[in-house]
Amino acid sequence: MKIYTRTGDEGKTSVIGGRVMKDDARVEAYGTIDELNSFVGQAASVLARESTSDWADLLETLTIVQHELFDCGSDLCYAVPDPAKMKVTPAMTDRLESWIDLYEAQTPPIEKFILPGGSEAASLFHVCRTVCRRAERRLVTLSAEQECPDEVRKYLNRLSDFFFTVARVANARLGLLDVEYERSAPVFRRRS
């Protein structure tokens, strides 16, 4: 198998159902998801350098997320989405919410916005969060121009919350406190 095909040398790429420019809104959206997936892999690599028994649950979760990010990209590769072939489901978004609740219970309460940072892993999860938000914005742009599967956008919206939560978990497990943004008004309340 050859990695290069030369078919994209003129600035076009294939999607399921045709060819589009490489800066098409659809390609921008799934390309940003691919970028996010790479950062998730980097964050998992950082955790794997630590004692894996301390991070086994999160490493397993991140592997599932990486597969689901491929599902998101796959769903976006259709020039005209076919509902019967979509891989991202509401159950995947529901599971993200369960993980958020599980991990949030492992963090100290916060009231204000926090600065991205602390541990290397937490910093990378904040990068994942911001790239995820950009991917979501790319989907909003795509939705205004072309057909786009709604469930992918919902999944990404919840996924950015997941990354915020696991960034806090990484710091908490390492005994590091999140640094609150000093001019933030109180914005968070712990759900009961």
TrEMBL record:
<keyword id="KW-0169">Cobalamin biosynthesis</keyword>
<dbReference type="InterPro" id="IPR016030">
    <property type="entry name" value="CblAdoTrfase-like"/>
</dbReference>
<dbReference type="GO" id="GO:0005524">
    <property type="term" value="F:ATP binding"/>
</dbReference>
<dbReference type="GO" id="GO:0009236">
    <property type="term" value="P:cobalamin biosynthetic process"/>
</dbReference>
<protein>
    <recommendedName>
        <fullName>Corrinoid adenosyltransferase</fullName>
        <ecNumber>2.5.1.17</ecNumber>
    </recommendedName>
</protein>
<dbReference type="InterPro" id="IPR029499">
    <property type="entry name" value="PduO-typ"/>
</dbReference>
<comment type="similarity">
    <text>Belongs to the Cob(I)alamin adenosyltransferase family.</text>
</comment>
<keyword id="KW-0067">ATP-binding</keyword>
<dbReference type="InterPro" id="IPR036451">
    <property type="entry name" value="CblAdoTrfase-like_sf"/>
</dbReference>
<dbReference type="Pfam" id="PF01923">
    <property type="entry name" value="Cob_adeno_trans"/>
</dbReference>
<keyword id="KW-0808">Transferase</keyword>
<keyword id="KW-0547">Nucleotide-binding</keyword>
<feature type="domain" description="Cobalamin adenosyltransferase-like">
    <location>
        <begin position="3"/>
        <end position="170"/>
    </location>
</feature>
<dbReference type="GO" id="GO:0008817">
    <property type="term" value="F:corrinoid adenosyltransferase activity"/>
</dbReference>
<comment type="subunit">
    <text>Homotrimer.</text>
</comment>
<comment type="pathway">
    <text>Cofactor biosynthesis; adenosylcobalamin biosynthesis; adenosylcobalamin from cob(II)yrinate a,c-diamide: step 2/7.</text>
</comment>
